[in-house]
Design a protein that fits this description.
Elements: H1 3-6, H2 9-13, E1 20-26, H3 31-40, H4 47-55, E2 64-67, H5 72-78, H6 82-94, E3 97-98, E4 103-105, H7 117-124, E5 128-130, E6 138-146, H8 150-161, E7 166-174
Parallel strand pairs: 1-7, 2-3, 2-6, 6-7
Antiparallel strand pairs: 4-5
Protein backbone atom coordinates (compact mmCIF):
# COMPACT_ATOMS: atom_id res chain seq x y z
CA UNK A 1 0.00 0.00 0.00
CA UNK A 2 1.27 3.47 -0.76
CA UNK A 3 -0.03 6.69 0.72
CA UNK A 4 -1.86 7.55 -2.50
CA UNK A 5 -3.84 4.33 -2.14
CA UNK A 6 -4.60 4.94 1.52
CA UNK A 7 -5.33 8.66 1.84
CA UNK A 8 -8.49 9.17 3.80
CA UNK A 9 -10.55 12.34 3.96
CA UNK A 10 -8.79 13.42 7.15
CA UNK A 11 -5.36 13.04 5.49
CA UNK A 12 -6.54 14.96 2.45
CA UNK A 13 -7.89 17.84 4.53
CA UNK A 14 -4.99 17.78 7.05
CA UNK A 15 -1.93 16.47 5.19
CA UNK A 16 0.56 14.46 7.25
CA UNK A 17 4.07 15.71 8.03
CA UNK A 18 5.61 13.23 5.56
CA UNK A 19 5.50 13.15 1.77
CA UNK A 20 4.96 9.43 1.09
CA UNK A 21 4.17 6.42 3.24
CA UNK A 22 4.84 2.88 2.05
CA UNK A 23 3.63 -0.18 3.96
CA UNK A 24 3.32 -3.87 3.23
CA UNK A 25 -0.35 -3.72 4.17
CA UNK A 26 -2.86 -2.59 6.72
CA UNK A 27 -2.37 -4.07 10.19
CA UNK A 28 -4.50 -7.19 9.67
CA UNK A 29 -3.84 -10.91 10.20
CA UNK A 30 -1.31 -12.41 9.95
CA UNK A 31 0.85 -9.26 10.08
CA UNK A 32 0.26 -8.40 13.79
CA UNK A 33 1.55 -11.81 14.88
CA UNK A 34 4.56 -11.59 12.57
CA UNK A 35 5.42 -8.05 13.68
CA UNK A 36 5.10 -9.12 17.32
CA UNK A 37 7.49 -12.03 16.76
CA UNK A 38 9.94 -9.74 14.95
CA UNK A 39 9.76 -7.05 17.64
CA UNK A 40 9.54 -9.04 20.87
CA UNK A 41 10.76 -12.57 20.11
CA UNK A 42 13.88 -11.70 18.10
CA UNK A 43 12.55 -13.34 14.91
CA UNK A 44 15.24 -11.56 12.88
CA UNK A 45 14.75 -13.98 9.98
CA UNK A 46 11.55 -12.03 9.19
CA UNK A 47 13.54 -8.90 8.29
CA UNK A 48 14.44 -10.21 4.83
CA UNK A 49 10.93 -11.21 3.66
CA UNK A 50 9.53 -8.02 5.22
CA UNK A 51 12.13 -5.95 3.36
CA UNK A 52 11.53 -7.77 0.08
CA UNK A 53 7.76 -7.18 0.25
CA UNK A 54 8.15 -3.56 1.30
CA UNK A 55 10.81 -2.78 -1.32
CA UNK A 56 8.45 -3.96 -4.08
CA UNK A 57 6.17 -1.03 -3.25
CA UNK A 58 8.88 1.65 -3.34
CA UNK A 59 9.58 2.89 -6.86
CA UNK A 60 11.90 5.82 -6.08
CA UNK A 61 13.67 5.06 -2.80
CA UNK A 62 15.21 7.68 -0.59
CA UNK A 63 19.01 7.51 -0.68
CA UNK A 64 19.16 7.50 3.13
CA UNK A 65 17.19 5.34 5.58
CA UNK A 66 16.79 6.58 9.15
CA UNK A 67 15.51 3.95 11.60
CA UNK A 68 13.23 5.19 14.39
CA UNK A 69 15.53 5.32 17.42
CA UNK A 70 14.94 3.60 20.74
CA UNK A 71 15.98 5.17 24.01
CA UNK A 72 19.14 3.45 25.27
CA UNK A 73 17.20 1.94 28.19
CA UNK A 74 14.57 0.32 25.93
CA UNK A 75 17.26 -0.92 23.57
CA UNK A 76 19.14 -2.43 26.51
CA UNK A 77 15.95 -4.11 27.79
CA UNK A 78 15.00 -5.49 24.37
CA UNK A 79 18.55 -6.16 23.22
CA UNK A 80 18.07 -4.68 19.75
CA UNK A 81 16.17 -2.09 17.72
CA UNK A 82 13.82 -3.79 15.26
CA UNK A 83 13.73 -0.67 13.05
CA UNK A 84 17.50 -0.89 12.58
CA UNK A 85 17.25 -4.56 11.55
CA UNK A 86 14.47 -3.71 9.09
CA UNK A 87 16.40 -0.72 7.71
CA UNK A 88 19.53 -2.78 6.99
CA UNK A 89 17.52 -5.50 5.24
CA UNK A 90 15.62 -2.86 3.27
CA UNK A 91 18.83 -1.06 2.29
CA UNK A 92 20.10 -4.25 0.66
CA UNK A 93 16.96 -4.46 -1.49
CA UNK A 94 16.84 -0.76 -2.36
CA UNK A 95 20.59 -0.16 -2.70
CA UNK A 96 20.44 2.69 -0.20
CA UNK A 97 22.38 3.76 2.88
CA UNK A 98 21.35 3.33 6.53
CA UNK A 99 22.31 6.14 8.90
CA UNK A 100 21.37 5.09 12.41
CA UNK A 101 23.06 7.81 14.44
CA UNK A 102 21.29 11.00 13.26
CA UNK A 103 17.97 10.47 15.03
CA UNK A 104 18.26 10.18 18.80
CA UNK A 105 15.61 9.36 21.40
CA UNK A 106 17.03 11.22 24.38
CA UNK A 107 13.98 10.95 26.66
CA UNK A 108 12.68 7.59 27.90
CA UNK A 109 8.94 7.34 27.25
CA UNK A 110 6.17 4.88 27.93
CA UNK A 111 5.50 2.48 25.05
CA UNK A 112 3.07 4.04 22.56
CA UNK A 113 1.08 0.83 22.26
CA UNK A 114 -2.18 1.09 24.18
CA UNK A 115 -2.07 4.87 24.64
CA UNK A 116 -4.83 7.16 23.38
CA UNK A 117 -4.12 9.55 20.52
CA UNK A 118 -3.74 12.49 22.93
CA UNK A 119 -1.56 10.50 25.32
CA UNK A 120 0.67 9.43 22.41
CA UNK A 121 1.23 13.05 21.44
CA UNK A 122 2.18 14.21 24.94
CA UNK A 123 4.23 11.05 25.54
CA UNK A 124 6.56 11.90 22.65
CA UNK A 125 6.89 15.62 23.29
CA UNK A 126 10.61 16.50 23.30
CA UNK A 127 11.57 12.80 23.13
CA UNK A 128 13.70 13.07 19.98
CA UNK A 129 16.68 15.08 18.79
CA UNK A 130 18.89 15.33 15.72
CA UNK A 131 22.61 14.70 16.05
CA UNK A 132 24.82 15.92 13.25
CA UNK A 133 23.82 16.76 9.70
CA UNK A 134 21.57 15.00 7.23
CA UNK A 135 23.52 13.31 4.44
CA UNK A 136 20.65 13.97 1.99
CA UNK A 137 17.59 16.20 1.64
CA UNK A 138 15.52 13.10 0.72
CA UNK A 139 15.29 10.63 3.60
CA UNK A 140 13.06 7.79 4.69
CA UNK A 141 12.11 7.03 8.28
CA UNK A 142 11.92 3.28 8.90
CA UNK A 143 9.45 2.07 11.53
CA UNK A 144 7.63 -1.17 12.24
CA UNK A 145 4.02 0.02 12.55
CA UNK A 146 2.49 3.46 12.05
CA UNK A 147 -0.64 3.81 14.17
CA UNK A 148 -1.60 7.43 14.82
CA UNK A 149 1.56 8.67 13.13
CA UNK A 150 2.73 10.60 16.18
CA UNK A 151 6.22 9.08 16.28
CA UNK A 152 6.97 9.69 12.62
CA UNK A 153 5.30 13.12 12.71
CA UNK A 154 7.58 14.23 15.56
CA UNK A 155 10.60 13.00 13.63
CA UNK A 156 9.42 14.67 10.41
CA UNK A 157 9.15 18.04 12.16
CA UNK A 158 12.72 17.72 13.43
CA UNK A 159 14.01 16.61 10.03
CA UNK A 160 12.29 19.52 8.24
CA UNK A 161 14.01 21.95 10.63
CA UNK A 162 17.43 20.65 9.59
CA UNK A 163 16.81 20.69 5.84
CA UNK A 164 14.92 17.54 4.85
CA UNK A 165 12.89 18.39 1.76
CA UNK A 166 11.32 15.00 1.02
CA UNK A 167 10.48 12.56 3.80
CA UNK A 168 9.18 9.08 3.12
CA UNK A 169 7.94 6.61 5.71
CA UNK A 170 8.75 2.93 5.19
CA UNK A 171 6.84 0.71 7.58
CA UNK A 172 5.56 -2.83 7.81
CA UNK A 173 1.98 -1.81 8.48
CA UNK A 174 -0.33 1.16 8.80
CA UNK A 175 -3.17 0.69 11.23
CA UNK A 176 -6.69 1.91 10.72
CA UNK A 177 -6.96 5.15 12.62
CA UNK A 178 -8.77 4.81 15.96
Amino acid sequence: MTDSQARCGACLSHPPAWDHLFAISAYHDPLPQLVHAFKYQQAFELALPFARQLSERILHPAPVLLPVPLHWRRRWQRGFNQSVHLAWALADHLDTQVVDNVLVRHRHTAPQQGLSRQARLSNLKHAFAIRGELPSSHVAIVDDVVTTGQTVSQLCRLLRRVGAETIDIYCLARTDLP
